[in-house]
Write a structure and sequence with these properties.
alpha/beta; TIM Barrel; Urease, subunit C, domain 1; 9-stranded mixed sheet; 5-stranded parallel sheet; binds zinc ion
Length: 520
């Protein structure tokens, strides 16, 4: 999905944007590197010394050497690095006598890696198209939905970020955490041209650095420069992986977007292509021959186009396949939800082509490999960052357990060694824990640095600030193109009745998503 721009609002929007800086990146447009904010956050990270922690439970490593450790212990050092992964009975590494022990009683996975999102828009919920026939391309639905009908999230979403930027960031980060995500694509510190006072609750792909260079850079659209392909080649040659939307939709002509990239030397190991629905098996084979990866977003594709990427041909060609939810407007609320869409499609349409383990790898080890970050995230392995997800243990098969888990099963999320979210018992040693309601369950979120006086330390205050943005009078004073009635309510953190009603009533997916309700 590529955010649209309504021509009617262009003038007002330009005026409005003066106050926010480079918000274009929120829509995925290229603007800059965000080095200043990166350095500030790195400095604060270096100060953080964490207590050592030991997590016990069934460890699902995604590491061929270890695979599954039934009764395992993961040792996390004071830098937030996994120092060791062993059986509970094995001797611990030295220095863990005073460590904090967390007996999870559940299954421990690597945190999920979401390589396709537009978190800026995840404040709002699923949008229902006004037509019942599938769109053919993104250009088509962009014509159909505008902010005026409350459909396209132009100004109402901007209002959240304009008046409650920190709170908006916390909300979308929490929404990802509630689905076990520890690495999120689509929003970086560079987005707003200024550092966030409180840092982040999870890892943002675009903020990752190696030897001072960006590990990844996202381009929804081609950059508006004289030779975008030269810019792509230069970035990839320098070691940056590009995450780029192309060939989105069902119109076969969209295959030309891939052809242009291919012919200009931009398809290779450092290109991750988002969507690629329009590609036929021949093109997918050409792609696989050069390396790289596709990010598959079946719910969003089915919602808008009634069909999705030919992942069977992609698999046969040997192309890496990652999965990402796209955004709440046409996709799942988080990556954990999107795994269920993959599971349904795999059973109903693909004859179980993918094993349960392969489906889980699409959200963990495969995106880590595709990013060139296998030495940092994506597995539970000695030497990697402690990005971990703990789920309740409901299924004897650990991969089924992940696929079938809902937000209710997410018991703990640790990002970069920092416990960020979970059930309160697992966070009891941590200050600044704030209670949050997720569907029918109570969870806790760990909000950052209490030493910052301006810090927002209470989840209720965050939500309350966001809800005050809903006051049309207040918004109307500042943003002339928001009229009464253009209010977009905050989305729920997990699927609810309204969500499943919208899915049941939707005509474009042709019933392909109806079974999703059974997982909840
Ligand atoms: Zn998208």
């Amino acid at each position: 999905m590529t955010p649209a721009r309504s021509s009617k609002s262009t003038l007002s929007r330009r005026t409005f944007l003066k106050g926010i800086g480079s918000i274009g990146v929120a829509a995925g447009l290229y603007i800059g590197s965000g080095e200043v904010s990166y350095r500030l956050r790195q400095a604060s990270r270096q100060r953080a010394q964490r207590p050592r922690r030991v997590l016990t439970g069934r460890i699902v490593t995604f590491d061929p050497a270890a695979s599954i450790i039934e009764d395992g212990a993961a040792y996390l050092d004071e830098r937030g690095v996994i120092e060791a992964v062993r059986s509970v009975g094995a001797p611990p590494p030295t220095g863990y006598a005073g460590a904090i022990h967390i007996e999870t009683g559940g299954d421990i996975y690597p945190g999920l890696v979401d390589l396709h999102n537009h978190p800026y828009y995840d404040l709002r919920s699923l949008w229902t198209p006004s037509r019942s026939t599938p769109y053919t391309s993104r250009a088509e639905w962009q014509q159909d939905v505008t902010w005026q009908d409350g459909g396209f999230p132009e100004s109402p979403i901007d209002a959240y970020w304009r008046f409650a930027q920190e709170e908006s960031m916390k909300f979308v980060e929490l929404k990802a955490l509630a689905g076990g995500v520890t690495t999120l694509q689509g929003l970086s510190s560079a987005t707003f041209g200024a550092p966030f006072r409180e840092g982040h609750l999870l890892r943002h792909v675009e903020d990752e650095r190696r030897d001072g260079r960006a590990v990844a850079e996202s381009f929804v659209l081609r950059p508006r420069v004289a030779d975008p392909f030269a810019l792509f080649r230069q970035r990839m040659a320098a070691g940056t992986t590009l995450i780029h939307h192309f060939s989105e939709g069902r119109d076969p002509d969209l295959g030309r977007e891939f052809d242009e990239l291919f012919d200009n030397g931009c398809i290779g190991p450092r290109m991750i292509g988002v969507h690629a629905n329009a590609l036929d098996p021949a093109r997918l084979r050409r792609w696989a021959g050069r390396g790289g990866a596709v990010v598959w977003s079946p719910q969003s594709n089915l919602w808008l186009y009634g069909q999705t990427t030919d992942v069977a041909a992609a698999k046969e060609a040997g192309l890496r396949i990652c999965v990402g939810p796209d955004w709440s407007i046409s996709g799942s609320k988080n990556l954990l939800g999107e795994l269920k869409v993959v599971d349904v499609w795999n059973r109903q349409r693909l004859g179980r082509l993918f094993t349960d383990r392969e489906i889980c790898e699409m959200a963990t080890s495969v995106p880590a490999d595709a990013l060139g970050l296998a030495d940092r995230i994506g597995r539970v392995r000695e030497g990697l960052q402690a990005d971990l997800l703990v789920l309740s243990h409901r299924s004897s098969d650990p991969y089924r357990n992940l696929i079938e888990a809902t937000e209710r099963d997410v018991h703990l999320v640790i990002a970069s060694g920092r416990p960020s979210y979970g059930v309160s018992e697992m966070l009891r040693t941590i200050p600044n824990v704030s209670s949050v309601r997720v569907g029918s369950v109570e969870r806790a979120v760990v909000l950052p640095d209490p030493t910052i006086s301006s810090s927002i330390l209470n989840w209720e205050e965050i939500v309350s600030s966001l809800e005050r943005v809903h006051l049309v009078e207040e918004v109307g004073n500042h943003i002339p193109f928001v009229a009464a009635g253009d209010v977009v309510p905050l989305d729920t953190l997990m699927p609810d009745d309204a969500y499943f009603r919208a899915i049941a009533d939707a005509t474009i997916p042709g019933g392909a998503l109806t079974e999703l309700r059974s997982y909840y």
